[in-house]
Amino acid sequence: MKKINLHGHEIFMVKGSYEANGATAISVFSEEDGFLESFGVLTVCIPEVPAPSGNKVIVKTWSENEIFSELIDLGIFKNTGETIPTGYVFAEVWEIADESYLMSDKEFEEYQNRELSLS
To answer: Is 53 exposed, middle or buried (0-12, 13-18, 19+ CB in 10 A)?
Structure first.
């Protein structure tokens, strides 16, 4: 697992999928003082929109998620320029450029179990 320093927070990302349409879901976590904490959710599920093809994800880039735009500058994601209307805002379509920063659901579960066994 590769950790990322994002505005003074050491974070890591977990890749899963949304049940509604199978689109890729990416959750972001931090580890503070030995405790795992949810830092946010990078992606958004728009059930009426088919899952993007390939390594593309639908990203919430407004409000509290504005901090994640730095992930493009770091080369982890590429902005495709595509947008999807959702209510009064537009979600952006990004492409995963470096999978090595993403932990699978299974790897995350193993990581959590390992951390619990150490305590």
So the answer is: exposed
pLDDT tens, residue by residue, 39-67 = 999 999 999 999 999 999 999 999 999 99
Q: State the amino acid at position 95 in one-letter form.
A: E
Q: Give the Cα separation of 54 and 24 in Å (integer).
A: 10
Q: Write down the pTM of the prediction.
A: 0.92
**Cβ neighbour number for residue 56 with a 10 Å cutoff:** 18
Q: What is the Rg, in whole angstroms, of the alpha carbon atoms belonging to the chain?
A: 15
Domain ranges of the chain: 4-118
Amino acid at 88: Y
